[in-house]
Automatic annotation (TrEMBL):
The lineage of its organism: Eukaryota, Metazoa, Chordata, Craniata, Vertebrata. GO terms for biological process: apoptotic process; negative regulation of extrinsic apoptotic signaling pathway via death domain receptors. This is Fas apoptotic inhibitory molecule 1. Keywords: Apoptosis, Cytoplasm. Its main location: cytoplasm. Plays a role as an inducible effector molecule that mediates Fas resistance produced by surface Ig engagement in B cells. Pfam families: FAIM1. It comes from Mionectes macconnelli. InterPro entries: FAIM1, FAIM1_dom_sf. The keyword Cytoplasm applies. The keyword Signal does not apply. GO terms for cellular component: cytoplasm. Belongs to the FAIM1 family.
Length: 182
């Protein structure tokens, strides 16, 4: 495997199916462009005469749309920006904080990353979409699923405040798991 000598940018992107690493090589003399997602080559273009532009690809199990913009800043300096679903990475991540909850926990010596997509109520665990069973309870709803023979439940309860909306809590083995900040 050749050394990544033209590596100009690396990003970490947290999606429902996991945290993905995007690496970009840009040969400013050869015009070479290479995009790697999680170490796997997605795009390779040699001898591009146009040094600026855009490379589009998908990331993760959900085939999330991504693009790297290549812009000339001055002279031979370039700026590389990553877009996810048409938004800058920063905007995408800010929006994601509102639409998902993420918990990191350890069960029987194994690490698990559980993500709730609030709009669809889909639950992901370590990159797999989980089978869930939802039920209405006195103070809200409960979404039940199993991780490594442990029964898990995400409780959704109204905060009573319009600004806060619904509070989602993960309970595993009758223990509340604190939400992770990614």
């Amino acid at each position: 495997l050749e050394k990544m000598t033209d590596l100009v940018a690396v990003w970490e992107v947290a999606l429902s199916d996991g945290v993905h690493k995007i690496e970009f090589e840009h040969g400013t003399t050869s015009g070479k462009r290479v995009v790697y997602v999680d170490g796997k080559e997605e795009i390779r273009k040699e001898w591009m005469f146009k040094l600026v532009g855009k490379e589009t690809f998908t990331v993760g199990a959900t085939k999330t749309k991504a693009a790297i913009n290549i812009d000339a800043v001055s002279g031979f300096a370039y700026e590389y920006t990553l877009e996810i679903n048409g938004k800058s990475l920063k905007k995408y991540m800010e929006n994601r904080l509102k639409t998902t909850n993420t918990w990191i926990l350890n069960l029987d010596g194994m690490d698990y990353r559980i993500v709730l997509e609030k709009d669809t109520m889909d639950v992901w665990c370590n990159g797999e979409k989980m089978e869930t069973a939802g039920e209405f309870v006195e103070d809200g709803t409960e979404t039940h699923f199993t991780v490594a023979d442990h029964s898990c439940c995400i409780k959704a309860v109204s905060s009573g405040k319009r600004k806060e909306g619904i509070i989602h809590t993960l309970i595993v083995n009758n223990r509340e798991i604190p939400e992770a900040v990614e």
